[in-house]
Amino acid sequence: MTTYQGGCLCGAVRFEADGAPKWTGLCHCASCRKHTGAPVAGFAGYESGKVRFVVGAPVYFASSEGVRRGFCGSCGATLTYEGAPWPGEIHLHIGAFDDPAAFAPKGQGFPEERLPWLHVSVDGME
């Protein structure tokens, strides 16, 4: 089984994820934009038991009811999303992986909130 590694910008938080994610996708919601500072957020969804923090640990912020977002307390890099609608899952930001190219998005969430000037195609869906 392949183990994927990743972490924050400064190296204070490092993680490992076992095997392929359950899913990958882009999120266009306003909360993800605010958390990342980017026009869209990319995630790889894993069962929580398949992810380990091997150096340091994220700091968490409850961004809304039933949602917590993890980031590095030193450099501020975004790392995780966990939400009540997906119990037992941790969603890792694709950009936090050492090899983000291995996590091509397969779907899109909240396309109705997509910025009008952003055009991305995932499996033929824009």
Describe the structure.
The protein has 126 residues and is mainly β. It has one domain (3-113): Metal Binding Protein, Guanine Nucleotide Exchange Factor, Chain A (Beta Complex), CATH 2.170.150. It is 6% helix and 40% strand. The chain contains 1 helix and 10 strands. The chain has one helix at residues 30-36; strands at residues 3-7, 14-18, 23-27, 41-47, 51-55, 59-64, 67-71, 78-83, 89-93, 108-109. It has a 7-stranded mixed beta sheet with strand order 6-7-8-9-4-3-10. The chain is globular, with a radius of gyration of 14 Å. The model has no long low-confidence stretch (mean pLDDT 94).
Characteristic terms for this protein:
126 residues, mainly beta, Metal Binding Protein, Guanine Nucleotide Exchange Factor, Chain A, seven-stranded mixed sheet
H-E order: EEEHEEEEEEE
Major β-sheet strand ordering:
6-7-8-9-4-3-10
| Total of domains | 1
User: Unreliable runs, pLDDT <50, ≥5 residues?
Assistant: none
Q: What is the CATH topology assignment?
A: Metal Binding Protein, Guanine Nucleotide Exchange Factor, Chain A
Q: What's the tally of helices?
A: 1
The shape is globular
Major sheet size, sense and barrel closure: 7 strands, mixed
Calculate the terminal CA-CA distance, rounded to whole Å: 33 Å
Strand fraction equals: 35-45%
> Structural class, from secondary structure content?
mainly beta
Number of strands: 10
Rg, Cα atoms, Å = 14 Å
